Every structure is written in structure tokens, then in C-alpha cells.
Q: What sequence folds into this?
């Protein structure tokens, strides 16, 4: 017999009754039933109930074992009595009677429980992540992740893509976040960088004649953490194609993403009709470029109803250039209590508040508008707002004003709260949307200077001709895919023509010499017959987070950092010793404590 196991803890069935078997695994829990011990033995594959009584030679040792000890048992398989069958376990029709036992690894007192899914402080969970990963839910999340990655690979190979690995140690390249720098021992004073993405390399592959590339790529960015973003590293499905249009990229990646969600989404509906929404409309309707379309509420501009009105705050605001008033419809939100709560939310977000109107039934049976705004602007304007928003008795609307960039993020949050609290958001499905037509440039309001607002490597819509006009009107062939309020995919049709690239950077204040310095390898390659090309990258961690129905990305990553970008288990980051610093020709200049 094998030294550790003849079967796994998920194998045994009623057909194995009478066999002598060997199992190895972890003690999930021990129960004492009047001198008879029941041990639930667990491994990667499942759970088996084990029984040992005082007649067994192993009983004395069995009395000493505790939760999470790693043991080996020799036992015989027996049928459970009808009343003790556990239909929730694949092995629930049998139990095994222990004849011999060996302790393979004892365990100290546990710093956190493995049995059950109790909440525990994150600091403890991350320090003892190897124990945390034994918990059923987290363990299943990692198996889900593994299966998703395998499925994505299979789908990409099936549609003609080739998998290549690009360098991990490379040159620094601005991708919208800070680089992790790696000092060079052989070149004192110089640094490599960990890639924020394989962006330049995958474009160079297209110049090299590889028509369809993909990679499950590690990416490294020194970013501030949030619930759906790691502060250090993440994985993405990276892909690139030659001789393609934007729509062809969509048509290629949509079946891959949709197929993964249909296969692993726990039977939650996946809407296959993915709208294409302009960046401008998304910001207006949803207050974000990653909208959650499970919430049907759309914001609208209602400036005309407040211009010159009796509500001086909005009327005076609209006299300033670049300002507008937006309304958030709130069907079924027509109570003063709810309106006051939303107003308090806005104040908590740093705004003076949110104006509101709600419609109710008057004493004579007619409909009337209520709230401070209604009194100030009068019935005619109020009725025009109601008709524009399509509201009725029992409904409300909330209003925010100013320059959109100053309030639209709060408006977007308010829209989601309204949708959730009033029951408009269907949580049990997946809704996707392409966000397109991103502006390439923005103007700094303080300095008046033009800089890139989004990916500088995107091909401008209209090419060189578009760059001759107003930079703030230039849109790029850039796109994101949003799902349930999270950005899952980002990509673009690339700017593969050196003359257009130089011009694009010149508008943002970067001379040709700076472009050559920063992106010399790619610019040089583009002068040797670069094909039109484009692609995208899909976040593996976020995909699995949504499929696992988790709110935090750390729940689908094996060994994540904490909110301070620290690895509590391995002790990273750590201080280098003097010899290491000397070898790298480095000296520390630490800030004052």
C-alpha cells in the first residue's frame, strides 16, 4: 500500500464498503460521543468521517489529536446507518473505522479557526495565510481561479492565439502608475523596472509578425490599494492582434469573457448584448466610466429648468462657464425621510448637500411636488422636470450642480445607493458595457497646459488630421469593458505611425527627443513596417472576484499584501543589509521618523 494514502478524502463511496484503505489529511474537527471519537478528516479533495472506539489500537493516539493536525490512518470502510447519512457530503453514505494512525505533523494552538467561515482580523488572516487558505470558501476561490485561468487559455488557443512570455525585468515606462524599480549591480546608478504591463513588448511582437498574441501576464504597479485593486501586483489576460479594427477586437474578446462568466458564474444570467457607450455619456448618465448597468437609473442634465429660476444657488451657478445641473431620478424614493438621508450622504462626501423634489398625492387627490426646491422654482418648472425624468407620485429626484468633474463621482455613488436602497438594482446577474470614445487630452485648470487624460499610445480618431484641431476634442480608439461597476478590460487600437505619435506627444508638451528617450525601442521599430494593431487586457483577479461573488480582491489572491502593501507572512518589504547596499552602490536617505 502507498505510504500515505490509497484514496483521497473525497473518493470513498458505498461501493467501497468492506475495503481496507489508507487516508492522509488534516483533522477538521474531533467529536467525542460517549467514548467513541469521530474525526472529520479533510484534504484537498473532500472530507471523510472517521470513527475510532476504545477497542482500536489507535484509540490512545486518537485522543491526543486536535484540529489541523496532519495524520495518516488505516481503516475499513463501513456503511452508515440510515439516520446518520449526510447528503451534503459526497462521502456521506460511508464512514471509516480507524485501525491504525500516525501523526505526520502536529499543530500548535491555532491563531485563527479553520473550521467554519468566521470573520477574523485581516492582520491575522494575512500573517497566517497558509492556514486561512485551508478554509473551505477561500480554498474553493483558489480552485475557481485556477480553473478560470485554464479555461481562458483554452479559449484563446482555440481561436488561433499563440502564447508568449515577455520580460519581467525591463526599462521604466509610464503606464499611469508608479514603477517598482530594481537597482542594477552591473550598471551602478542605473535601474531596471518591473513591467506595469507588457504593453510595449506585445506591440513589438506585432511588428515582428506574430499576428495573434496572448499571455496570462503578471503586472507590477506601485499603487494605492482599494477593494478591487492590489497595491503591488496582479495578473491579466493580455492580448494583441494585427490588422484589426476596434470592433474586431470586441468581437474576438467578447465570446471569451462571456463564455467564462457563463461557465463559472453559478447560473447567474450573463447579458450577451453589450452596449457601446461613449465616455462622455457614461460620465453623464452614471457618474463613472465603469457603470453598473444592473441599476437602470440614468442621470440627466436639467440646467434649463433652473436657469433664471427662484433657486438662487443653482441660478447663479449656471452663470459661470462650464457648469450644469444634473438630476438623479429616484423612482419610489418619494419620502422626506429618504430624501433627507440622501442629502446627509452628500454632505458626508464633502458637498454642501443635494437638492431634492418628491412628488406625493395632495389632499384633493391631485399630484403635488414637495421639498425646498419645488417651492423655490414653482410648479411649472417642477412639472417640466418631472415629465423630463418620467417620474410619478411616490417618486423623487435629486440634484447636483457645478462643474461636472467636481461632483459627478459623488453623483455616481448616490445613483448606486438610490438603486440599491429602493430595490432597482438586480444583484443576481452580470451586465457588461463597452465604454468607448475616450478623450486623449485634458487641460489643467490651474496652468492651462494640455496633458494626456488617457492612454497616450491610442490612435487618435481621424489620425493626424484630428491632431491639427482642438486637442480637447480629440478622441482615441480606446475602450474599457465594465461589468457590474468594475473595469474588467482596457485596451486600444494603437498609434503605430511615428509621425502621428510624435505629434500626439508634442501637443502634450513632450519633444521628439523625450519620446525617443522614453520609448526609443518602440518608436524605432515602428519605422520598419509596423502593421495596424490593437488589443486589450482583462484583469484575472477582478474576473474571479466577480465570479466568486467577493467584495474584496484579496479573497481571490493566494498571498496578497495588506492595505499598506506589506506581506505580513514573509516580512516584506524588508531592510537590505549593508553588504547588499554596498554591492549595489546604494546609500539610504530615509525620511525623518
A:
Amino acid at each position: 500500500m502507498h505510504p500515505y494514502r490509497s484514496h483521497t478524502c473525497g473518493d470513498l463511496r458505498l461501493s467501497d464498503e468492506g475495503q481496507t484503505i489508507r487516508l492522509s489529511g488534516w483533522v477538521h474537527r474531533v467529536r467525542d460521543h460517549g467514548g467513541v471519537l469521530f474525526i472529520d478528516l479533510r484534504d484537498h479533495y473532500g472530507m471523510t468521517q472517521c470513527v475510532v472506539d476504545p477497542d482500536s489500537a489507535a484509540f490512545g493516539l486518537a485522543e491526543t489529536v486536535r484540529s489541523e493536525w496532519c495524520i495518516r490512518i488505516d481503516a475499513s470502510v463501513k456503511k452508515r446507518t440510515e439516520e446518520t447519512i449526510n447528503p451534503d457530503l459526497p462521502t456521506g453514505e460511508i464512514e471509516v473505522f480507524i485501525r491504525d494512525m500516525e501523526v505526520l505533523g502536529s499543530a500548535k494552538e491555532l491563531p485563527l479557526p479553520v473550521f467554519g467561515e468566521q470573520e477574523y482580523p485581516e492582520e491575522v488572516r494575512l500573517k497566517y495565510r497558509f492556514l486561512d487558505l485551508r478554509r473551505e470558501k477561500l480554498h474553493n476561490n483558489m480552485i475557481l481561479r485556477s480553473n478560470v485561468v485554464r479555461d481562458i487559455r483554452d479559449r484563446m488557443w482555440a481561436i488561433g492565439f499563440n502564447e508568449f512570455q515577455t520580460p519581467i525585468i525591463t526599462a521604466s515606462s509610464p503606464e499611469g502608475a508608479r514603477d517598482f524599480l530594481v537597482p542594477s549591480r552591473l550598471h551602478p546608478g542605473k535601474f531596471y523596472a518591473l513591467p506595469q504591463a507588457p504593453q510595449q513588448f506585445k506591440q513589438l511582437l506585432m511588428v515582428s509578425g506574430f499576428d495573434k498574441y496572448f499571455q496570462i501576464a503578471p503586472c507590477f504597479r506601485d499603487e494605492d490599494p482599494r477593494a478591487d485593486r492590489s497595491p503591488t501586483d496582479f495578473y491579466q489576460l493580455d492580448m494583441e492582434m494585427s490588422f484589426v479594427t476596434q470592433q474586431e477586437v470586441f468581437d474576438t474578446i467578447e465570446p471569451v469573457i462571456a463564455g467564462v462568466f457563463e461557465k463559472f458564474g453559478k447560473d447567474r444570467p450573463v447579458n450577451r448584448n453589450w452596449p457601446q457607450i461613449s465616455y462622455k455619456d457614461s460620465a453623464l448618465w452614471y457618474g463613472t466610466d465603469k457603470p453598473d448597468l444592473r441599476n437602470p437609473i440614468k442621470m440627466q442634465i436639467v440646467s434649463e429648468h433652473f436657469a433664471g429660476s427662484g433657486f438662487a444657488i443653482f441660478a447663479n451657478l449656471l452663470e459661470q462657464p462650464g457648469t450644469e445641473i444634473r438630476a438623479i431620478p429616484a423612482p419610489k424614493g418619494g419620502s422626506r425621510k429618504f430624501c433627507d438621508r440622501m442629502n446627509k450622504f452628500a454632505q458626508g462626501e464633502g458637498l454642501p448637500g443635494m437638492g431634492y423634489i418628491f412628488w406625493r398625492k395632495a389632499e384633493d387627490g391631485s399630484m403635488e411636488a414637495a421639498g425646498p426646491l419645488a417651492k423655490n422654482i414653482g410648479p411649472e418648472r417642477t412639472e417640466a422636470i418631472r415629465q423630463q425624468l418620467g417620474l410619478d407620485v411616490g417618486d423623487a429626484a435629486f440634484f447636483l450642480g457645478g462643474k461636472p468633474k467636481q461632483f459627478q463621482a459623488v453623483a455616481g455613488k448616490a445613483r448606486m445607493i438610490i438603486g440599491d436602497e429602493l430595490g432597482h438594482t438586480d444583484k443576481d446577474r452580470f451586465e457588461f458595457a463597452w465604454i468607448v470614445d475616450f478623450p486623449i487630452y485634458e487641460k489643467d485648470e490651474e496652468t492651462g497646459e494640455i496633458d494626456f487624460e488617457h492612454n497616450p499610445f491610442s490612435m487618435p480618431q481621424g489620425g493626424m488630421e484630428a491632431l491639427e484641431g482642438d486637442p480637447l476634442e480629440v478622441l482615441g480608439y480606446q475602450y474599457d469593458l465594465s461589468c457590474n461597476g468594475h473595469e474588467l478590460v482596457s485596451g486600444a487600437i494603437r498609434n503605430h505611425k511615428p509621425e502621428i505619435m510624435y505629434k500626439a506627444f508634442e501637443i502634450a508638451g513632450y519633444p521628439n527627443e523625450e519620446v525617443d528617450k522614453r520609448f526609443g525601442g518602440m518608436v524605432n521599430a515602428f519605422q520598419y513596417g509596423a502593421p495596424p494593431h490593437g488589443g486589450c487586457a482583462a484583469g484575472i483577479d477582478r474576473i474571479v472576484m466577480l465570479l466568486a461573488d467577493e467584495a474584496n480582491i484579496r479573497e481571490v489572491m493566494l498571498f496578497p499584501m495588506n492595505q499598506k502593501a506589506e506581506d505580513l507572512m514573509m516580512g516584506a518589504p524588508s531592510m537590505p543589509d549593508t553588504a547588499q547596499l554596498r554591492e549595489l552602490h546604494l546609500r539610504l536617505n530615509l525620511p525623518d521618523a
